[in-house]
Amino acid sequence: xxxxxxxxxxxxxxxxxxxxxxxxxxxxxxxxxxxxxxxxxxxxxxxxxxxxxxxxxxxxxxxxxxxxxxxxxxxxxxxxxxxxxxxxxxxxxxxxxxxxxxxxxxxxxxxxxxxxxxxxxxxxxxxxxxxxxxxxxxxxxxxxxxxxxxxxxxxxxxxxxxxxxxxxxxxxxxxxxxxxxxxxxxxxxxxxxxxxxxxxxxxxxxxxxxxxxxxxxxxxxxxxxxxxxxxxxxxxxxxxxxxxxxxxxxxxxxxxxxxxxxxxxxxxxxxxxxxxxxxxxxxxxxxxxxxxxxxxxxxx
Length: 300
Fold this sequence. Notes:
By secondary structure, this protein is an alpha/beta fold. The chain is about 40% helix and about 20% strand. It contains eleven helices and eleven strands.
């Protein structure tokens, strides 16, 4: 028997068993279903035996005798690894590492700086690199091992798992002088307005599309201005255009009265902030600390 086992093998195995299938395990781990399947195949190859009964994959989980024997040991190894990382983090600030984070723009710009400052205070020798990307690229970056942690904003699926850190909301914005500013209106009052967005496609577009589809109205015209700041400046440049941005990215402008919210009825669908972890990231005390600081955070 070959024994080139890695923690990612054991984590995938235990997660599939506890989640009850590959699809739920992939969602919990923040990776694709194919990545989970490939990891389990690699584990079975290393052990020289099958772990799942035939026909079980994708239809619930049934373990072979070898799988049943492995399960308690795998859980024990993962628990000990977590205890070791936590104990080391508690007795030393001399952790030296580079933490690569890929995040959507509104998170990297308006949420992460304060959290990373606290992280560097605890572990001053940790070097942090943040890359701003769209959700699809963030997942690819983590899967390829280029990023240790991905932070994506997605339409709230309604079902939560451990990878969901907190909720967020999108707001429709206008200049304070806009005729709809400060009002609560229905979708038909918005259909003739242009909407400024930070990217050309993505979950924000899905939210807007779903809102107008629910009202059985055509979607208004949208324009991508490249960045969150570009959307803000576009709104303030004048005209009848509105913007669609996460509330945490415009909190200061709303508080100062520089921008005004246009409230819609029914409300726009919500978003969730989801953590996408690399294969080895779950054992990093630095990643764990950053994820913990974001969990349950109020995002406007």
